[in-house]
Amino acid sequence: MTLSLVEKYRMFSEVIESFDLERPTFSLSDDIVAKGFQATAGSGVLEGHYPVYDSSVASKMYGTGCSLIGKTNMDEFGFGKFSVTGTGGTPGNPFDPERSCGGSCGGAACAASLFEGHAALATSVEGGITAPSAFCGVYGLTPTQGRVSRCGQIDSVSSMGPIGIIASSPEIIKRYLPVISGKDVCDPVSSAQPQLELGKKKIKSAAIPRGIADDTSGAVKKAFEDSVEKLKGMSVDVEFVDMPSLKYAMSAHYVLSVTEGALNLATYCGMRVGPQDGDLSLPFDDYFTKFRSTHFGDEAKMRIIAGTYMTLGDNRKNIYLKALGTRQAVLNDHKKVLSTHDVIVTPSMPFTAPKFSDVPRSSADSYMSGCFAVPPIFCGLPCLSVPCGYDADGMPVGMQFISDHWCEDVLIDAAASWNSSFKAKRPEVSL
């Protein structure tokens, strides 16, 4: 018997009755480890991997008395925008189970939308928090790179992919961001400076890249333009600005993400973790090739091949190093604007959640749908997606706030102010 996604949601509500739901609950995307829970990062190459320790963020959440109710589905190693490439199954959107939750961490946004007061911890390699937050009508914060320890995170792209929080309200994010933030001796790139202080800054000015919503769907464009007018009514000084480097951000991000991804995924060869089902009588090269060909998904394979190519011979100078220079140019544009404005405001996604039959099939089309979510991640800047409207089918539209490094307090104030003036809807499917 095949169950509908709605029936699966209801069955899941019966399963979680065994948990102590009198305590606050949280979940982890499948690339954040916790003792006793399988961690595969959505990939068959890690099937059966049960870590023997807790990630730093899980330990900190346990310390507040929160109960971990499970792991959430995601695209394989965070490579995707629709949560359709992972081996753990495809989560359905709580507003319409026949539509995508977004990705890469779609399951996290689904959980945040369905569970009252729930904090879903997730990662954002290429907008993996912003995209599903927009599609599921919830709030999603991606903090400054280094604000939150990545100890216990299964890395795919080393210089990007911070751990953030998705929740149904900014109050939940405000409650738990200080808990998971701070210097960690187990993560040498985590930072305690400057100290996270919430409630110190208020949003007064916002910059909008000129023409940013021109290529979005009609519903997104209208909701975004209406939201800009609402911001003006909230006494926020709105100015349109030029950010010419934005058009190069996606290409440069792709180069760096596939290059780092190829290096990180090289460690998965079937000898240490994951399925131990290979023929050990084979020569090493043959064993590794067969294992990786069998257990990696198509998207991961494509990125491994592309990333390896981009560092071969002269390609390193002609492609990889140029992408590094482009990252600096994109960052400089953001820093210039943020030196005179509190936030940059863009749509979160160029369209609302598509039906699974309409999800872009080509890797390139899927990747380019993150044109708004990727640039801040590319630069290590914090960003926060908020629900800002609904299309004719009742599917949520998201708006993204971007602030300067270490200025999460500005984002949370912006989200709180927005939440007080915009009434977000909850899905009809509830647990």
Describe the structure concisely:
The chain has 431 residues and is α/β, with parallel strands linked by helices. It has helices at residues 5-15, 56-63, 106-114, 130-136, 170-180, 218-233, 246-265, 284-295, 298-309, 315-338, 363-368, 374-379, 408-421, and strands at residues 25-29, 67-72, 92-93, 96-100, 119-123, 139-142, 163-167, 205-209, 237-241, 343-347, 383-390, 396-402. α3 (106-114) runs parallel beside α4 (130-136), α5 packs antiparallel against α13 and α7 (246-265) packs across α10.
Give the C-level CATH assignment.
Alpha Beta
What is the CA-atom radius of gyration, in angstroms? 21 Å
Biggest sheet: strands, sense, closure?
10 strands, mixed
What is the fold-level CATH name, i.e. the topology? Amidase signature (AS) enzymes
Elements, N to C (H/E): HEHEEEHEHEEHEHEHHHHEHHEEH
Strand order of the largest sheet: 2-1-5-7-6-11-12-10-8-9
Shape: globular
Query: What is the CATH architecture annotation?
Result: Alpha-Beta Complex
The total domain count is 1
CATH-level-4 superfamily name: Amidase signature (AS) domain
The class by helix and strand makeup works out as alpha/beta
Distance between the termini: 22 Å
Which residues sit in consecutive blocks of at least 5 with pLDDT less than 50?
none
Structure annotation, total helices: 13
